[in-house]
């Protein structure tokens, strides 16, 4: 009986440890950019735009190359006013927070 208990305990521990690991090992992309911008993104944007910036709400929510499609003022306006299925964040985020996000996002997808 003790052997069965030990085997079951070992299996449980291994199963729990299998869930550990880095975000990259779990298939999550790490976001790169200014710390403040990434923190704001995680707080306000990640639920619709995803951990990999590719969007969870269809092609329009894909941000991985948004800077190649929209200028910084256009991104700012989109964040402030929303549009299509995106809600407005003009009253949820400060002007400085929107500036930080739009500055970072406008650099995504631009050729260097």
Automatic annotation (TrEMBL):
Q: What are the boundaries of the signal sequence?
A: 1-24
What name does this protein carry?
Cytochrome c
Q: What PROSITE patterns does the annotation carry?
A: CYTC, PROKAR_LIPOPROTEIN
Q: Which residues form the Cytochrome c domain?
A: 22-109
InterPro entries named in the record: Cyt_c-like_dom (IPR009056), Cyt_c-like_dom_sf (IPR036909), Cytochrome_c550/c551-like (IPR051811)
Quote one Gene Ontology molecular function term: metal ion binding
Q: Which UniProt keywords apply?
A: Electron transport, Heme, Iron, Metal-binding, Signal, Transport
């Amino acid at each position: 009986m003790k052997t069965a208990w030990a085997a079951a305990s070992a299996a449980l521990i291994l199963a729990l440890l299998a869930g550990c690991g880095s975000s990259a090992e779990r298939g999550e992309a790490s976001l790169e950019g200014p710390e403040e911008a990434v923190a704001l993104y995680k707080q306000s944007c990640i639920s619709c735009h995803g951990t990999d910036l590719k969007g969870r709400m269809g092609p329009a929510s894909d941000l991985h190359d948004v800077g190649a499609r929209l200028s910084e003022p256009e991104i700012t306006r989109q964040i402030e006013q929303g549009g299509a299925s995106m809600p407005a964040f003009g009253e949820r985020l400060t002007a400085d927070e929107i500036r930080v996000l739009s500055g970072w996002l406008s650099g995504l997808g631009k050729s260097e």
